[in-house]
């Protein structure tokens, strides 16, 4: 797994509407220092701060957020273990995250050429509609997680090239963006697909999504820049990534939304997965 960092947005404990009652300079929302104390109690080094861009963090950072109230930023990580621990404790302590609270993942691409990054982004545009089928409605219809394929960022006959890096740096509100790469020459891609509450409720899903995204990154970077931005079918996506057995079933069940996790845990082989999937639909 390549290096990454996460951002976890949370509501203030008094559920303040920050669009109507915005934070004042130097103000910290209700519950802010409860989050700081929780992270510290887990043995993680943590720094409370007012909002600002944070890069290459060495410690956990809790900062104010103008839309939700509270934002947690991880240090640079290689594994998800510490994030899972924190998510489970956020659930135990009943911290809340409504539909306005996002969970962002930043992947490090300091080892990748512009060509490889452009290949990943171009293939993302081709498979994005299938990934959105796995998401909750509040993420599909969210101005902070906009579908690239449904935007007007590209002309009808625009062909993939390394220019895609520049186009996806114009806004940080696309489902995947290069905002910091283009603006600050910080070689990361940000995936803005998820809602914080979904991972707080089901922390195990983070590992599944991280596996999926890493497999997509690996497969698309090796594939090269495609000849067009046309959407692909599910079979094409599965050929691009290496999902097997329970990971394959997990992804199919996310799309189908009719297969429960008990069936996933009972399945023993790829044959069982395909059989269950066909029977369910």
Task: Summarize the structure in words.
The chain has 281 residues and is of the alpha+beta class. It has twelve helices and seven strands. The chain has helices at residues 32-41, 81-92, 114-132, 137-140, 164-167, 179-184, 196-201, 204-223, 234-240, 245-256, 261-266, 270-280; strands at residues 4-11, 46-49, 60-65, 69-73, 102-108, 176-177, 188-195. Strand 3 and strand 4 form a beta hairpin. It is globular.
Overview in brief:
42% of the residues lie in helices and 14% in strands. The chain has helices at 32-41, 81-92, 114-132, 137-140, 164-167, 179-184, 196-201, 204-223, 234-240, 245-256, 261-266, 270-280, and strands at 4-11, 46-49, 60-65, 69-73, 102-108, 176-177, 188-195.
Give the arrangement of secondary structure elements:
Elements: E1 4-11, H1 32-41, E2 46-49, E3 60-65, E4 69-73, H2 81-92, E5 102-108, H3 114-132, H4 137-140, H5 164-167, E6 176-177, H6 179-184, E7 188-195, H7 196-201, H8 204-223, H9 234-240, H10 245-256, H11 261-266, H12 270-280
Parallel strand pairs: 2-3
Antiparallel strand pairs: 1-4, 1-5, 3-4, 5-7, 6-7
What is the first-to-last residue Cα distance?
A: 33 Å
Strand content: 5-15%
Total beta strands: 7
Q: Spans with pLDDT under 50 lasting ≥5 residues?
A: none
């Amino acid at each position: 797994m390549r290096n990454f960092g996460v951002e976890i947005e949370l509501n203030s404990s008094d559920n303040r509407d920050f669009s109507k009652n915005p934070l004042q300079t130097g103000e910290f929302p209700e519950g802010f220092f409860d989050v700081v104390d929780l992270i510290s109690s887990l043995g993680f080094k943590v720094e409370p701060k007012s909002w600002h861009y944070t890069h290459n963090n060495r410690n956990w950072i809790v900062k104010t957020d103008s839309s939700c109230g509270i934002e947690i930023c991880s240090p640079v990580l290689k594994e998800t273990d510490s994030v899972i621990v924190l998510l489970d404790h956020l659930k135990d302590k009943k911290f809340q995250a409504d539909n306005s609270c996002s969970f962002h993942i930043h992947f490090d691409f300091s080892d990748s050429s512009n060509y490889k990054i452009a290949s990943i982004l171009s293939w993302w545009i081709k498979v994005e509609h299938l990934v959105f089928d796995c998401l909750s409605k509040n993420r599909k219809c969210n101005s902070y997680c906009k579908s690239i394929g449904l935007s007007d960022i590209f002309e009808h006959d625009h062909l993939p090239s390394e220019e895609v890096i520049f186009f996806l740096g114009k806004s940080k509100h696309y489902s995947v963006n290069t905002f910091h790469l283009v603006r600050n020459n910080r070689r990361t891609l940000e995936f803005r697909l998820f809602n914080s509450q979904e991972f707080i409720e089901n922390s195990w899903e983070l590992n599944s999504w991280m596996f999926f995204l890493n497999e997509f990154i690996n497969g698309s970077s090796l594939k090269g820049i495609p000849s067009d931005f046309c959407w692909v079918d599910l079979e094409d996506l599965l050929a691009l990534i290496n999902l097997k057995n329970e990971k394959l079933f997990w992804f199919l069940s996310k799309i189908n939304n009719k297969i429960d996790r008990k069936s996933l845990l009972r399945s023993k082989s790829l044959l069982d997965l395909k059989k269950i999937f066909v029977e369910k639909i």
